[in-house]
Design brief:
This protein is α+β, with helices and mostly antiparallel strands. It contains 7 helices and 5 strands. It has 2 domains: about 40 residues, no CATH class; about 100 residues, 2-Layer Sandwich (Herpes Virus-1), CATH 3.30.40.
């Protein structure tokens, strides 16, 4: 709505729904109602609070079943083949002890994948899950997993 001065009368340019425009004389009640609503910030504050009370799209997605499934599938892809329910130990020693499980993806030990053990917490990890190769591991004297590293520097 735009005000146009035309002699002694004030005319307003109205945009119609169909996209056309027309000049009209404004009704005094409409102007006062518009002006009064512009000065009242309470409805805007209420709207702001209502909008902010809802979870964000990110929070909703992270809490969803879709994210959980995608996240687990992605971790499984990083770690290569994971043997789950039909897991069979490869040796007698392994059969007597608890199975070795990757602390990131919960995949069982498999000889075809590179594994590394944290020297602090003694947890085992697929090299791909902690982004370390066998070549890098050979140059490391003391391996610290990401969780122990974050605990040491004070991050969670």
């Amino acid at each position: 709505m735009t005000k146009v001065s035309h002699g002694a009368h004030s005319l307003y340019l109205y945009g119609n729904i169909d996209g056309s425009w027309e000049l009209r004389q404004s009704k005094p009640n409409e102007l006062h109602a518009l002006r009064d609503n512009l000065n009242n910030s309470e409805p805007l504050e209420d709207l702001f609070n209502m909008i902010n009370s809802f979870p964000t799209v990110r929070e909703t997605f992270l809490a969803s079943e879709t994210y959980r499934i995608c996240h687990l599938e992605e971790k499984a892809k990083l770690c290569g083949p994971v043997i789950e329910k039909n897991y069979e130990p490869e040796s007698e020693d392994e059969a007597l002890s608890d199975p070795v499980v990757c602390s990131v993806c919960d995949g069982h030990y498999h000889t075809s994948a590179f594994w590394i053990c944290c020297d602090i917490c003694n947890q085992w990890y697929h090299g791909k899950c902690v982004k370390i190769t066998a070549k890098k591991a050979n140059r490391i004297k003391h391996y610290e997993c990401p969780e122990c590293f974050n605990d040491r520097i004070g991050h969670n």
